[in-house]
Amino acid sequence: MLSTRLQAEPGRVVIRPFHIAPAAKSGEPPSNARARRIVDAVMALDMRSCQSELALVNRDFEQRHWQTRRVFLERYEQVRRDLKLRNGLREERKELIGAYFCHEYSYTSAALMNPSIVPHPDQSGLTAGSLRVVMSLRAVGEGHISSIAFREGILKADGSFDLQPQPPFSIAASPMELPSSQNGMTTTAVRFEEASLSGTVIFPFTDQQRNGLEDMRLVLLDEGLDGAPVYCGTYTAYSGRDIQSELLTTHDFKTFRLTPMSGPAARNKGMALFPRKIGGQYAIIGRQDGENLFYLTSDDLLHWEEGEKLITPIYPWELVQMGNCGSPIEIDEGWLLLTHGVGAMRKYSIGAVLLDKDDPRKIIGRTVQPILSPSDDDREGYVPNVVYTCGAIAHGRKLFIPYAVADSSVTFCWVDLGELVAEMIGQGV
User: Fold this and answer.
1) Which long-range contacts link 221-228 to residues 24+ away (Cβ below 8 Å)?
2) Across residues 251-265, what is the average pLDDT?
3) 91-100 vs 31-43: helix crossing angle, rounded to 10
4) Are 429 and 363 in contact (CB under 8 A)?
5) What share of the chain is helix, strand, coil (3-state, %, to 5)?
6) Which of 255, 216, 253 is CA-nearest to residue 404?
7) What is the DSSP string of 143-212?
8) How many CB atoms lie within 10 A of CB 146?
9) pLDDT given at position 293
10) Residue 114 has pLDDT above 90, yes or no
């Protein structure tokens, strides 16, 4: 285990739209009437009072955020469209109206957990044996709403990990809806402007996502929908009642597309893509019944039918249920799949399975005992007795695993691939 640890940070805040709640009782004004009342009150201020109130807002918040003026003006434009307000207002009045419809949100106030990791698209300027990486993280804030955060770092040949510092300000991504040619669905693009990736957050913004974007499993896919390599992230969109698997795609970690997946399998959690096609088809490891791992294939990256059962719990530490811990990793000996198992007292541990490279439906071996398990010194937190990851990365003949502890924080470790494979061969087949 490395000494580096990422913790929940209540001080990491972003500006989010504040939506006026609908009236709670019959006969009260609807939400748009309440919003219009607020706008009318700001419009009634003389300019000196308007400037004074805006100065107070800026004094309270401009040192905590990046480009508050731009954010307030963008929010004003949304309110103007919703309420059909007239144009021609002075900038200061627009900003103040926008500020009344924003709020500050601490996106990691509750927890930071369930990381995934891929090679960074920029590998320039590195010393020999180093690899720049991107991590996604599940950030949990007020109301247990989950969002997607990112961190960048460098894996060194000597086994060290240099984590890039976060910028002073965090930035919420800006949504933009686009028509999709896939299955008649809507794809949403999220754009970042001058923000650092390590300070960027993707929040829920569709009805299906409104209670969280959960447990993204990143992978660099060698052939995407357009035939070119693309970064993909499968994650769970939670509405507060229903779950839906969705797919994030990006070429540069600056522009993202978030698209719902279809088919019976997309109603389940924890889908993890293989990094390349198998037998001419896309392939996924998923848990379709809440207990076992399944192997699924499809000609369409966004549509998934039910697959075939592949891995079942057989050891005491995984008897309650199994799941994948990210996308399969291609190594010399086959496909290395990290798994999580749930044992007695709902204790979550991490193990591994080795699959045949040509036919992943064949199991070469698996770990009899977990690779990682909650220890006495490191088991307390938001959800005790849990270690969990959504993806690791091979670097040379070692495996780098970022993993969550007790659904509260994230730490890191290295595992020797040769030793791990030797422990798995012939076990559990």
Assistant:
1) 221/273, 221/275, 221/276, 222/275, 222/276, 222/277, 223/276, 223/277, 224/249, 224/301, 225/182, 225/249, 225/301, 225/302
2) 92
3) 140
4) yes
5) 20, 40, 40
6) 216
7) GG-EEEEEEEEEE-TTS-EEEPPPPSS-EEPEEEEEE-SSTTPEEEEEE--S--GGGEEE---STTTTTB
8) 28
9) 97
10) yes
Find the helix or strand (DSSP H, E) in which 329 lies. strand 329-331
Cβ proximity of 405 and 412 under 8 Å: no
Q: How many separate helices (H) and strands (E) can be counted in the chain?
A: 5, 28
Q: Report how far residue 5's alpha carbon sits from residue 18's, in angstroms, rounded to the nearest whole number.
A: 32
* C-beta atoms surrounding 56 within 10 Å: 12
- Write down the pLDDT at residue 24: 47
150, with CB counted inside 10 A (0-12, 13-18, 19+), is buried
Residue where the block lists tokens 């247990």: 144
CB 50 within 8 A of CB 42: yes
Contact 326, 274 (CB under 8 A): no
Give the SS3 label for residue 304: coil
User: What Rg, from alpha-carbon coordinates, does the chain have?
Assistant: 23
Amino acid code (one letter) for 172: A
